[in-house]
Structure prediction request, 371 residues.
Amino acid sequence: MVFKSALTSRFCERLSHFTVCITCIVDLKMNFVKKLAESPDLNSIPSIYAYSTNPNESSVSDPQDSIPVVDFSLLMSHDPVLQSQVIQKLGNACKDWGFFQVINHGVPETLMKMVIEKSNEFFNLTDEEKKDFEEKDVLDPIRYGTSFNSKKDKVFCWRDFLKVIVNPEFHSPNKPVGFSEVLFEYSKRTREVAKGLLNGISRSLGLDQSCIEKSLNLESGLQILVVNLYPPCPQPELAIGIPPHSDHGLLTLLINNGVCGLQIKRNGKWINVNDTLPNSFLVNTADHLEIFSNGKYKSVEHRAVVNNSVTRISVVVANGPSLDTVVRPAYELVDDERFPAVFVPMKYKDYLEMQQGNQIDGKTCLDRVRV
Ligand SMILES: O=C(O)CCC(=O)C(=O)O
Ligand SMILES: [Fe+2]
Prediction:
């Protein structure tokens, strides 16, 4: 194994004992998993990546029924009958699944492919070229990193990432050539889709179409684009790409490079997301929609598993309220006697820092704002 020559026992403060610790071996530099996976003799994972799944949850199946499909063009149509049908479908998808596929969204297929391609090029830059983007703080506008929160994680995720804040201010790495232009266009187009969906979701909750948009200040809403890179792993059954979690924003839009790996929790069981429709977005409801809808729509736990043959890339766009918005259940959905508020108000920025600054662990972050 590649690190053999560097193996020295030393006192590791992070693990608080004498050990051969992978982070010490690489001299406290960030140990990106892409680099590790490219080591020619790697046939087992370093122990820091050994992840134990909850034995009660280990069985995974394929879905019995397929993830609901929402036709975005109907949502935008001027035919009130078609529109109200699709709004009802959207509401049911949020309530029942928390995941749905969006088709006919108008984002060009070439742009979607380009985002994946340019993201891949980013990870293929030299270490020196990527160094400027290495993460320091959870709210840095550009963060290239590994695992989830490598300063806190006890078990590392088999995943490198690039997180970029693209709204209200647009940021982007300046390499590779053309990346910034592609990210700009993609973030703008996905923001329009998210806004259209949130208007429909507002109506499905019995609220005014622009209620979410106005109450949560979507115009200056935080949009973070995350590229996840999961290289081949020699022992995929022992590692995890991203452990179970729910997303922090309102709605997340996901695409990938055609390699499977996402699993979602449905009725207490893990199911594989295998076949999604070509050129669709896979969209999921996130914590702040659960808060705003007073628990009517739940954010859904999901995780990413890894494989031993091909690199998986996913590009995830998280669309949330503006950072300064204090989010609480919508007044119209709260009735002190029949439907008391089930969440306490919290500023989105504080929530985000709480979630991103800790280890990732299911829905424990949302649980902290439950009444
Ligand atoms: O890679 C995936 O499919 C899931 C990624 C994810 O859940 C996330 O970035 O929040
Ligand atoms: Fe996620």
